[in-house]
Amino acid sequence: MVHRTGIAAAGNWIIDHVKIIDRLPAEEHLALIEEETVGTGGAPYNVSVALRTLAPDLPLCAIGVVGEDADGRHILEHLDTLHIDRRYLRTTRDAPTSYTDVMTVRSTGRRTFFHNLGANALLAPADFPSDYGNLRLLHLGYLMLLPSLDSADLLQPHRTRAAAVLEQAAACGLETSVDVVTSLNPRMPEIVGPALPFTDHLIVNELEAGAIAGIPSRDTDGRLLTNHLREIAEALLRAGVRRTVVIHAPEGGFWKDTGGTEQFMPSLNLPPEFIRGTAGAGDAFCAGILFGLHEGWEATRALELGVANAAMCLSDPTTTGGLRPLDQVLALIGRFGFRNL
């Protein structure tokens, strides 16, 4: 039997230009930029950096497309520094490296995004390896922000090209994981749905999960409907997710799997002064869950790492600047404890 270890992360490779502003202005009004930083963006980039920070020796592989420009070179050099295999990270002259202007209001940590799809729009099934070697997991994100993979498979028009990629990875013996970008596009169930039967682990936020399932996750006042999380997860499992649905929100994380395990883990009780931004917290949570899945952890332990890693991420305005090694992340639980909801 082949011993599988390591995680391949595929999808959106983005440079984030994070700007801390005094307020989010109305159209034709002014806001002041008080601070600027450059950081990582996109599911595979953020998750890869988070996994490398948690586990220095874990085999990691990058799959995607970046432009032949300064931002693209920055990503390639960064991955080399982190000892992440980038042989499947293609460069192109046909589009710039994808970037996002992230406007973060200092007083609330709330973010508004202005995104250029760039080279990520070109990612196609041909960019994925035909043989993943001994890797254990493929994490793909974000669906709804990868136009080529979100489109219909020409050979099987009833499903997407992303579904074909996931099916091929599963045929190679990998477990598959999927994340989705938060979107108001009414076609989300139509685009994401075909990928679910080839998804072992769906790790998404409460808004994305609710949109895919067609079940609201928050009430009209914005309060999390915790009693709906079970219903949403059950709907997603019925739609085809093969093993685990994990839903994260600022209030905590919810896990439900086909083995009957179901658990909610509150987020950490952080003081306001600890939080410098919320960018990347969802990807940090996802990395914690992926690490737990890779290591065969049970739900409680994986959720604890997920919420603690998300909390650690909040200590910095960029998506990955606040991340720390595993022991420091877990120490946050004893330092702050969990929220009372």
Describe this structure in words.
The structure is a single chain. The protein has 341 residues and is α/β, with parallel strands linked by helices. Helix 6 (206-213) crosses helix 7 (226-238), helix 8 runs antiparallel to helix 9 and helix 9 packs across helix 10 (326-336). It has helices spanning 43-54, 70-81, 147-150, 161-171, 188-192, 206-213, 226-238, 281-295, 299-313, 326-336, and strands spanning 7-11, 14-21, 33-41, 60-67, 85-92, 98-105, 111-116, 137-143, 175-180, 201-205, 244-249, 252-257, 262-266. The model has no long low-confidence stretch (mean pLDDT 95). It has 10 helices and 13 strands. Helix 5 (188-192) links the parallel strand 9 (175-180) and strand 10. It has a 9-stranded mixed sheet with strand order 5-4-1-8-9-10-11-12-13, with helices on both faces. Strands 3-2-6-7 form a 4-stranded mixed sheet. It starts with 6 loop residues before the first strand and ends in a 5-residue tail after the last helix. Helix content is 31%, strand content 26%. The protein has one domain (7-336): UDP-N-acetylmuramoyl-L-alanine:D-glutamate ligase. The protein is globular, with a radius of gyration of 19 Å.
- Find the CATH superfamily: Ribokinase
Largest sheet: number of strands, sense, barrel closure = 9 strands, mixed
As a percent range, the share of strand residues is: 25-35%
Radius of gyration: 19 Å
Question: Helical stretch count?
Answer: 10
Please name the CATH topology: UDP-N-acetylmuramoyl-L-alanine:D-glutamate ligase
User: How many strands appear in the DSSP assignment?
Assistant: 13
The unreliable regions are none
Topology pattern, helix = H, strand = E = EEEHEHEEEEHHEHEHHEEEHHH
CATH class call: Alpha Beta
Distance between the termini: 45 Å
What is the arithmetic mean of pLDDT? 95
State the shape. Answer: globular
